């Protein structure tokens, strides 16, 4: 994975992580939290897979 791609993916992970925390603080619905959590899991798995494969 190129450094630029890695930074972009890490920025996106951080953005979704912050969104998750803000949704939790606002007591948003469980379904909404699950949706954000699934997106975060997808990004983390993508990062882990690409990082290990290179």
UniProtKB/TrEMBL annotation:
InterPro entries: HLH_DNA-bd_sf, Spo0E-like, Spo0E-like_sf. It holds the Pfam family SpoOE-like. Coiled coil: none annotated. It comes from the Bacteria. One of its GO terms (molecular function) is protein dimerization activity. GO terms for biological process: regulation of sporulation. This is Spo0E like sporulation regulatory protein. It comes from Salimicrobium halophilum.
């Amino acid at each position: 994975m190129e450094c630029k791609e890695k930074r972009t993916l890490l920025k996106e992970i951080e953005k979704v992580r912050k969104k998750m925390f803000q949704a939790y603080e606002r007591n948003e619905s469980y379904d909404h939290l699950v949706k954000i959590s699934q997106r975060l899991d997808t990004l983390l798995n993508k990062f882990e897979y690409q990082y290990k494969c290179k």
